[in-house]
Amino acid sequence: MVYQGLALITxxxxxxxxxxxxxxxxxxxxxxxxxxxKWRILVGYLxxxxxAGLLIxxxxxxxxxxxxxxxxxxLMFMGFITRLYIKDGFIKSSPAFIFMLVNAIIVFGFWDIxxxx
Length: 117
Prior knowledge:
mainly alpha
């Protein structure tokens, strides 16, 4: 039940954050600051698809949750590394790090639920 709750909250968060990435001036400015503006739209869609995969997977197929959380964990790892690279420091980088860990926890939790290993 804990893993399902994490997947639900994380899925909703990534859908909203992905929409923000596609539409808000703040996110346009952030990606310009990262010197990654050409990747903003792709990142936004990946976040929306990953979040939707978490939510849909909760009801249809737990393997979808595993792949979605794994992809989001990788995306957040890259975001964390990017923030460190541009010298934002650990505190400003911590949301990406925390979401990376939460998604990794979801992967391992649903792996156990799905495959029992």
